[in-house]
Amino acid sequence: MKYGFDLDDTLSDTMMLLNQFAKKFDVEELKGDGIFKIEPGECKDYYYFADALNWDKQNIADFFKKYYIDIIKNIVAKPGAKEFLQDLKENGNEIYIITARRERDDNLIEEITKDWLSKNDLLYDYLFINIKNKAEIVNKFKIDIFVDDSYNNCLEVSNETEAQVYLIENVYNEKVETTRIKRIRSINEINV
What we know:
single chain; alpha/beta; Rossmann fold; six-stranded parallel β-sheet; two-stranded antiparallel ribbon; 8 strands; globular
């Protein structure tokens, strides 16, 4: 079978570090109070922190320019991710990592991502970076199972592909209503 995984907050625990840096940026750079203004459980995409801190697009761009590299270099793998991917490989499955991480002209993001995956012993066959429409990759490679923490990505893949779709539950999406998408707390809940 072919498995497609998002990276941040699916195979890694990005949220905690991202929130720390977002609150720091809000206080130090934007002179805000660093306090989330909305309940994060109702967010449908990755920019929950920006909504919660009432940032505009320029604030988001400035934040990522300043802290993005530090964040993606220092995140940790989710518990059990390494073993789960190893089991998939041992059973002859293909692993596709499909991330929206924004690449720069110098390919630094891809290099950091590959180094991080290697350092954490996270096995994969194919890595796709800077993917805005994950359903296109899922369709093109006929991926059977797709897993992401973004409700919007899961909905898009569910609507546009034949893949079985799993939403990794997190504090920022826990109140989002799902019907055709199965909620899981960990990739270890996927039946292989």
